[in-house]
Specification:
elongated, Endonuclease Iii, domain 2
Length: about 220
């Protein structure tokens, strides 16, 4: 199977089975999303969705959070991972939004990366989810799934995977691709014990086909 055909069949599968993929983070506006995505680093969406409602009730926008001390923010987010650093990032992010962007979350990924606590992945999530920008955030799920299916080759870094995926997915679908792959990775193509027999991509998935060949070889040698 050619790489082009592999992408075509993968996209067709997701378009049919997950036509409207959405983030599992709960948010009501761009500021709420950027707060949630910063908190989600090394933390589950489920935990973040518990933390954000009281936090954003107290600090509903950049201007109110910009006035907060990190120690005040910490009290709301202490149940998530790395709460001390994230509290400092949130306070700094809010202050920069107010001072340099008029309190408005920018749509450009490069501008977003100027904000404290916002790296390439976070910027791409915000830009694609809120503004439908053709950028693709590569987390551990996206990286794992894309390598298993065979969409990327010799991708040793998330950036390498991002570039390969973005070069082969139609621009108007790139904003969906992160959620296609991340949700597939969370619920089907798990890191441990992937549910291959429930996967509609197994017919041409390199990981599944390779596993079957290995098992067949082991059986023939016994």
């Amino acid at each position: 199977m050619t790489l082009k055909e592999r992408y075509r069949r993968t996209i067709e599968f997701f378009e049919e089975n997950m036509p409207v993929p959405e983030t599992e983070l709960t948010y009501r506006d761009p500021f709420g999303l950027i707060v949630a995505v910063i908190l989600s680093a090394q933390c589950t969406d489920k935990r973040v969705n518990i933390i954000t409602p009281p936090l954003l009730t107290k600090y509903p926008d950049a201007r109110s959070m910009a006035l907060a001390d990190p120690s005040d923010i910490y009290e709301f987010i202490k149940s998530c991972t790395y709460p001390n650093s994230k509290a400092k990032h949130l306070a700094g992010m809010a202050r920069m939004l107010v001072n340099e962007f008029g309190g408005v979350v920018p749509s450009d990924p490069q501008m977003l990366q100027k904000l404290p606590g916002v790296g390439r992945k976070t910027a791409n999530v915000v830009a694609s989810v809120v503004y439908r920008k053709p950028v693709l955030a590569v987390d551990t799920h996206v990286w794992r799934v894309s390598k298993r299916i065979g969409l990327v080759k010799n991708a040793r870094t998330p950036l390498s995977a991002e570039r390969q995926l973005s070069a082969n997915i139609p621009e108007d679908l790139i904003y969906k691709a992160h959620h296609w792959l991340i949700l597939h990775g969370r619920y089907i193509c798990k890191a441990r014990n992937p549910l291959c027999l429930q996967c509609g991509l197994r017919e041409f998935c390199k990981f599944y086909l390779g596993k079957n060949r290995k098992n067949s070889g082991s059986s023939s040698n016994t």
